[in-house]
Design brief:
Oligomer: heterodimer
Largest sheet of chain B: 7 strands, mixed
Distance between the termini of chain B: 40 Å
Largest sheet of chain A: 6 strands, mixed
Strand content of chain A: over 45%
Shape of chain B: globular
Order of helices and strands of chain B: EEEEEEEEEEE
Number of strands of chain A: 10
Shape of chain A: globular
Helix content of chain B: under 10%
Number of helices of chain B: 0
Largest interface: A-B, 24 and 22 residues
Number of helices of chain A: 0
Strand order of the largest sheet of chain A: 2-10-9-4-5-6
Radius of gyration of chain A: 13 Å
Chain lengths: ~110, ~120
């Protein structure tokens, strides 16, 4: 099974900051990776797919990069609405594993 | 408009069974890859099961042999039959549509399953 490891688990930042979240796969997944945002009590929302493609309607301050085993999600300038939890997910194999999540908190 | 509406959650004793339903609208369930994803209270997301458009099914090791994913094409509905439930199965269960064999582009609102005596 492919394991997905996210870091950090918690990130404290301020409005306007640039932040980066990392996701590492236990084996190569090419570019078959998605990033989701989840707010408390809500279903996750797709942000990025195929490692670097921005989902329609998602602000351009979100971007993704990487391939193989190392991936990043970057928010260029944090907005108040961005404080949430973020998850990566691989879809290279049918065991569609998620990372353990990163909680983005207000500093 | 794509919509996914789960139902069937509730309180169940350990060892019991429950069937979750996910009624879809705005697209055809049988033409898509459909998954169940769960989230234990205060924890992260865990993929549970998928059914491919061709009918193949796959499960996470944690539920293999106990859970069964299926669909009713006439009702455009996805199901998750959960047997031999354990306390660690307590979670919000989300129904989800995959775009091709990939990203989840639509999620339901979730239904809470609580396994407790």
């Amino acid at each position: 099974d492919i394991q997905m490891t996210q870091s950090p688990s918690t990130l404290s930042a301020s409005v306007g900051d640039r932040v980066t979240i990392t996701c590492r796969a236990s084996q190569s997944i090419s570019s078959w990776l998605a990033w989701y945002q989840q707010k408390p009590g809500k279903a996750p929302k797709l942000l990025i797919y195929d490692a670097s493609s921005l989902e329609s309607g998602v602000p351009s301050r979100f971007s993704g990069s990487g391939s193989g085993t190392e991936f990043t999600l970057t928010i260029s300038s944090l907005q108040p609405d961005d404080f949430a939890s973020y998850y990566c997910q691989q879809y290279n194999s049918y065991l569609y594993t998620f990372g353990q999540g990163t909680k983005l908190e207000i500093k | 408009e794509v919509q996914l509406v789960e139902s069937g959650g509730g309180l169940i004793q350990p060892g019991g069974s429950l069937r979750l339903s996910c009624a879809a609208s705005g697209f055809t369930v049988s033409s898509n890859y459909m998954s169940w994803v769960r989230q234990a209270p205060g924890k992260g997301l865990e993929w549970v099961s998928v059914i491919y458009s061709g009918g193949s099914t796959y499960y996470a090791d944690s539920v293999k042999g106990r859970f069964t994913i299926s669909r009713d094409n006439s009702k455009n509905t996805l199901y998750l039959q959960m047997n031999s439930l354990r306390a660690e199965d307590t979670a919000v269960y989300y129904c989800a549509r995959q775009w091709g064999d990939g990203r989840i582009d639509y999620w339901g609102q979730g239904t809470l399953v609580t396994v407790s005596s």
